[in-house]
Amino acid sequence: MTKEVITPYGVTVWRSIRVLWPFMKNRTNIKVGNGYKTSFWKDKWLRSNSLKSLFPELAGMAVQQEVRLADIWTQQGWDIQFRRNFND
């Protein structure tokens, strides 16, 4: 379950992505198993689109371009590393 962001340091790019959450949540049902065969950036998540095609600038800033779900999911949530920090 995704928690609502209530802290004042939300980043503009994440706020933009968050706007799509209600649309994705109600129209998405994906089973990935253990996540070792599922590409975070390149597999199709929304209709026929990958996250890389939906968010090319964000994907381009990711440190790991070939990352699998199992590699970036922790018990605390997603651990996606980017080349630089994002500013509002």
Mean pLDDT: 80
Rg of Cα set: 13 Å
Question: Helical amount among residues, as a percent range?
Answer: 25-40%
Strand order of the largest sheet: 1-2
Straight-line distance between termini: 25 Å
Report low-confidence residues grouped into runs of 5 or more: none
How much strand content do the residues show?
A: 5-15%
The largest pleated sheet is described as: 2 strands, antiparallel
| H/E topology pattern | HHEEHHHEE
Q: Helix tally?
A: 5
Count the E strands.
4
Structural class estimated from helices and strands: alpha+beta
Overall morphology: globular
Keywords for this structure?
single chain; globular; two-stranded antiparallel sheet; 5 helices; alpha+beta; 88 residues; two-stranded antiparallel ribbon; 10% strand; 4 strands
Task: Summarize it.
With 88 residues, this protein is α+β, with helices and mostly antiparallel strands.
Description of the structure:
The chain has 88 residues and is α+β, with helices and mostly antiparallel strands. The protein has a domain of 48 residues. The chain is 32% helix and 10% strand. It is built from 5 helices and 4 strands, in the order H-H-E-E-H-H-H-E-E. It has a two-stranded antiparallel ribbon with strand order 1-2. The relative contact order is 0.17.
List the helices and strands and how they pair.
Layout: H1 12-19, H2 21-27, E1 44-46, E2 49-50, H3 51-54, H4 56-60, H5 69-72, E3 73-74, E4 77-78
Antiparallel strand pairs: 1-2, 3-4
